[in-house]
Batch of 2 targets.
Target 1
Amino acid sequence: MKMHIKEFAELTGVSVRTLHYYDEIELLNPSFVDEQNGYRFYDEHSLERMQEILFYRELDFSLKDIHAILSSHNYDKQKALKEQKHLLTLKKERLERLIMALDSAMKGEDFTMNVFDNSEFETQRDSYAKEAREKWGNTAAYNEYSAKAYSTEKQSELNDGMNDLIAEFAGCIADGNTPESKEAQALVMKWQTYITENYYTCTKEILAGLGTMYTADERFKANIDRYGKGTAEFMCAAIQEYCR
C-alpha cells in the first residue's frame, strides 16, 4: 500500500500541513520521498504510526510526550494500547455522567457538581505520561534535547543533515564496504557526533539502543531503507561494532 500525502491526509483526517509538520519534528516521516519531485508517500506502517499518534492526541498528550513515548526503544505497543483503553474508558464514563447531568438539568432536577470533576482521568493520564517518559524521557539526554528550542526552519535543516548522513551510509554499502570497515565506522562516529552536537549527548549506550531501534521498529526501518534496501541493517551492525 502506497498513498500520496493528500490521500493519506484524507484517510486519517489530518491536514497536509500537519503531516508536513510531523515530518519536520520526526514524529511521523513518510515511508518514501520521490527525490525528483519531492512528493511524500505513506504506507501501512505510516498508518499504524498515525493511529498511535491520534490515540495519544485524543487523550491530550503533548506532541513532545508522544514523540518521547513512540521513539523509546522500550516502547511496548500492547501495553500502550491497554493504557489508552483504560484512559478512554475513564473519559467515556465522565461523558456519560455529564449527559445524565444534562438530562437532569433539562428536567429541572438537581445534580451534583462533581460530574465536572476530571481529576481521575488527568491523574491517570499524567501518571502514564510520566512513567512512559521515564523509560527514555526522564534522562539527561531527553532533558538536553527538550532544552533546545529550534525553529521550524532550523529543525528542517537538522533533519536534512540526518537524511544526508543516512544517504552516506547507503552509499557506503553501494561501494562494497562492510559494517566493520573503517569507512562505515567513520560514518558511525560522524552520526554520533551529529546527534551530540544538535540534539543530546549521544553516549555509546544510547547509540547502541538507537541502532537496535533502527531495525526492531518497522517504521524506523522503512524510513531509513528508503535510501537503499538494507541501510537500516547496515547502520545497526556498524553501530553495534562501534559500540563494542
Note: The radius of gyration is 21 Å.
Target 2
Amino acid sequence: MVRVDGLRHAFGSRQVLAIDRWQVDRGEAWLVRGASGSGKSTLLHVLAGLLRPSAGRVEIDGQDIGALSDRQRDALRGAAIGIVFQNLHLVPSLTLRQNLSLAPLMAGLPSASAAIEQRLARLGLGRRGDDRPAQLSRGEMQRVALARALINRPKLLLADEPTASLDDVNTDLVATMLIEQAAEVGAALVVATHDARIAPHFAKALTLS
C-alpha cells in the first residue's frame, strides 16, 4: 500500500525528514512517533500528496506520487486517501451531515447519504446529524472528522496528532476507533503522534528523530 525509498524532504536548506526504506501493507496499523520537529506531520503531508518530496520515491497504491501532476495527486487523494488532521477543518456553518457530504463532493463521487448515516451511527453520533460543530465536545468533533475521512472508503487512512487536547478516556476511545474503523473499510492506517498514551494500541511503529 505504501512504499518509501530514500525519502528526503527539506524546507530551504533545512532537512526535516529522512527515511531510507519503509513499507505499510494493506490492513496494517502503524504509529509514527518522534519529538516535535522530527518530521511526523511532514511525512503525513507527503503521503497525502500535499507535499512533493525533495528526493526519493513514495508509492501509494502502486503510484509514485512524486511523478504525478497536481491534478493526478488530487484525484488519488480523493479516491484512495482519508485524512484526519490535528486542525479538524470542520465547517462551522454546516451540520454534521453536511460536513460529511463534502468528502464525496470534493472527490467527484456520488452523494453518500446512506453511508453518512451509517458512519455517524457507528461512531455514536447517529442523533447528532443536524448539529453543528460548535455544539460538540472536542472528542465528538474528532469522531466527526474521522467519519468524514472514512466516507469514501479509503485505502489509506492518515491521522495527525488525533488525540491532542483529549483526556485519557477520549484518547483511548479515539485510538480504538481509528484502528477499528480503518479495519472495517480495509484501509491501511498511519497515525503520527508524540502522545505515548496510544502506543499500546499499535504493534508496529516508525520512530523519527
Note: The beta strands are 2-11, 14-24, 29-33, 55-60, 63-64, 81-84, 156-160, 188-193, 204-207.
